[in-house]
Amino acid sequence: MSDDHSANDIATLINNARELAGDDVNGNAVSKPILIVDTVNPDQTVDDLAQVLRQTAVIYDRGMPCVVVRDAIQDCLIASPLTPASLTALAHKHARPRKVRGGSSQGDLVDVRLPKDISSMYLDSRALWQLPPLNGFSSSPMMSDDGEIRSASGYDVPTGLWLVNVPDLSCIVPLRPSRDQAEAALRRLRARLATFCFADAETIKPNDARPTSVNLDRPPGADESAALCALMTAVARPSLDTAPAILVRSAAISGAGTGKGLLCRVISSIAYGRKISAVTIGETSQEFEKRLSAELMSGHPVVFLDNVNNRSVRSNLLAAAITESPARVRKLGTSEMIAINNRCLILITGNGVTVAEDLVRRTLLVELDARNAAPESRTFTDDILKDTAEQRDELLAAVLTIWRWSRQDELPKGVSAGSFHTWARWCRDPLLALGCRDPILRQREMKEIDPEREHLTRAFEQWAAAHGDAPMTADALHESVKEALIPGRASRQALAAYLVQIAGIRIDGWYLQRLPRQSKWPGNRYRLIAQPDRNAPISREL
Hints:
By secondary structure, the protein is an alpha/beta fold. It has three domains: 7-129, no CATH class; 168-311 and 342-447, no CATH class; 450-530, Arc Repressor Mutant, subunit A, CATH 1.10.10. It is built from 17 helices and 26 strands.
């Protein structure tokens, strides 16, 4: 070969050259493709690098190139985004970067380190990746609308999920469950959760040392029904595009020790066969968004927001993660937004915690009340987490029996679940058919304790007392109304912007209407209208 290599010569080297790279564990020779590093034409090198990396079958797309690694501390698999440094190491593991030695009459190829800028260019060249999507991790069986249940291991092409420790339950889940089998499965699940202090449950206090438990001879109350629905949701979540979040709350102060986190851990143990790690939301909304983005990027099957005490949770990112697939999250350390498919279950616990704004309709509520000033002093005769782990196959099979029973025939539907149509058919409606309460109905209760809703209701009452339904501009509002809308003597601009933001809201019998602009009026005009029918059609509601 001459000293002057043409593009075709280099392409030939890339396509045909192979170098032995030692032996694998079985003693077989392993070859690595040669990657020609051409600093004059880096675009060609990046193209060739992309081709090499696609052939490794170890890199996936989760908004950015990532690899599957085990987190030793959490003892689970996570998606680890590639950096220029880790990408360089991976490239050397699966290829042999070389360059043409200048001045050599033979055109020798010499080993080189892959330049960092080549790795960076690859990471910035999304169109070149062409990697399989990684939608998350799951240890629950894959479910489809026809009642099929699949157990597999490793990367699952149809779902884009990485499956690990998925039990094969084909021998214990009936192919065509009867209603009697579904009812027996529900009773088995109720028995497992019976010692949790659901706020509205009818309970039994045995005369012996056994703890107070739910009366299984009575239909489930609203809170027990919501917990059962949360369990159904956890098992089905990896197979669903979207599903509501679960809020497990108790009263402020006296609610400590009621078992909120324990209930979440039991649900996770049944659905995923693993422990879950708690995440706190931090002191600021910005800190919360960063932590939530990191959790969503990792691909964990559960995002567990624990001990959110005496807080009102509001987050556009959290709302999007619940109802959008793919959802857009901010790439850590940058302002860049990336799209990821989210299949994780979102659990929130806290004393005195509420959800606000659009999160209300995206959340199921489970209320716990030990009816005891010191809930932590209660004694139990078993280790529920240990027993649940040992009985996981049986409990998971009970969930799948109920689900498969529901897929045989069209069941009566509950109230509209909005964008969670498939979730409602898979998780909620089977339980309704078996006598449980509809957890969607609890959302009205959550709306009533939404602090933003309470604030606006009081402000509108003040507005009505001062102005009735007369058209008003922001400047013309009485000072008491301005203070009620934005406490602390807000500026004229801030008040005007706030009214634009809340215009069109219907809340607790009030409707704030923005009137058409008229040239003789210097600003927007608003009319507050009383609407006794709170169930009237709405265009926007908190």
